[in-house]
Structure formats: C-alpha cells, structure tokens
Amino acid sequence: MTAIHGKTPQETAALTRRVTLLSVATAVVLVALKAAAWWASGSTAVLASLADSSLDLVASLATFFAVRYAAVPPDAEHRFGHGKAEAFASLMQAGLVFASAALIAREAVGDLLDPQPLRQEGWAMAVMVVSTVLTAALIAAQTRVLRQTASVAVSGDRAHYASDLASNLVALLGIAASAWLGLRGFDAAAALVVAALLLWGAVGVFREASGQLMDRELSDEDRARIVELVTEDKRLRDVHQLRTRASGPYVHIQMHVDLDPDLTLEQAHRMIVAAEKRLLAAFPQADVIIHADPHGRAEPHGGAFAEHAAE
User: Fold this and answer.
1) What pTM did the predictor assign?
2) Which of 14, 127, 176, 263 is the 20 to 30 Å CA partner of 210?
C-alpha cells in the first residue's frame, strides 16, 4: 500500500475513527445474530462463523482504541509519536485469528467424526445472508478509507472481515448442502474451509504489522517519489542515505543531499526548507529530516547504520 494519500494526520484520524466505530457496531450485530442462529440450528459452520465474528469484535475494539492512541501527537516520552500502536493492535488481531482457526478446526473435526443433524436450517440461512450483507457493506467502507489512508490497523481489521465474509459464504453453502441434500458432513467440512481462510488472512495481517514494527522501508514507488520531489530543484543532487519507515498513520523520512559548497548557510537552509515543503505536500503525515553535505567535500559520516543504508 502506498503511503501517499494526500491526507493530513487530522483528516486521517477522523476517517479511521469513523470506520472503526462502524466496525465495532457491525461486529456486535453479527455476534448477536450468529449466536441466535447457532443456538437454533446447532450448525458447526455457523459456530465457526460465530467464533470468527466474536474475535472480530475483540479485534475491532482493539483497533477502535489503537487508532485513537496512534493519532495522539508526539510528547516528551514519544518523540516519534504513537503510530505503532496500530501495528501492535494488528499483531493482536493476527494472534486472535490463529486461535480462532484452531478452535474451529477442532470443532469441525469432531463433527466430521460424529455428524449431527441440523435444526432450524431456514433461520440459520437467513441469519447468514444478513451477516453476509452487513459484512460486505463494512468491507466496502473500510476499502474506501484505505484508499485515502495507510492505516495498518484498519487494513488488519478489513482482513478479518474479508475472512468473515468468506466464512459466511462457506457456512451458507454448508448449511444448504446439509439441509437440502442431506450431506451432514458437508457442514463440518465448510467449517474446516473457514479455518483455512482465517489462517491465510492472519498471515497477511502478521506480515504487514511486523513490517511496521521492524521499521521496513516504504515501497520502491514511494522512495522514488521522495527522490523526485527533492531533486525538482536541480541544485539538490545525489540524494543518499535515504531512510524511511511507517508508524501507523505517519511516515518518517530522512536523507542526505549534496549542495554546492560555496552556498551560504542561509541559502542552503532555504533550499532544504523548500524541499521539505514539497515532500509535505505529497506526504502531509510525514516527519522529514534533510541533512546537507558539501558536494565533493563530505567525508563518510552519520554512524554505522547510515553507512550500511548507503550500501
């Protein structure tokens, strides 16, 4: 996902707050509906979907609070801000999904070995249809927000609900096969498919969140855009030791650039400030540091990390 979205931190925070509130509300409704459907039908596939939605509710609550904490401005103890709270929430989401998949798989295997007839299949199917529509609407709203932000927490939450949407469809198929075709084991088999989908989604969430926590670089596209913006002024050349990282809704950018050694300090300062403004126009959520080197006269400096980054 590109970090360029043209939104200020305040606009990003407002978008993520609204969509996470919608996520929590949707999860509460889904859990209530699916609990009633499972109680009435005894379907293992509905139980699998209920377990998924229950953990979605926990994850949505974590995301709800995480995006608000991540948007808190930097303070004396957190000079780089609080953005990584989103990545921590996403890691928790991934762990919950792994646990959910394991529990669902255990229930499904038990039901495959000893299949039970379903009850109130029509009620169960109606609830799953409603759940599918609500989940699809939420995913659409989250997708719109992610086109405008780079929130890893919202991305992780959407991954949960994408898995939930798939589990709803699979559960519907399993219930229909059991009710109309008399294939009792198909309901449990559908639950196993749901477990596999959950595991796949959890891996993606884990990778994205761990990338932020390990300070993975921005995409090649973003890094190339950064260099292009800085060097629009041809007096700024040889961008080197470029280092970037994402932190929730924010990105951090630092680099060295070569300038004519005969420039005055004031001239160099004005050129650097102009470059920073160009970057902030494209990355409103960025923290930018640009270090000026005299072209052809700068010895290696910046510490071991900087030297490795330049290799």
Assistant:
1) 0.66
2) 14
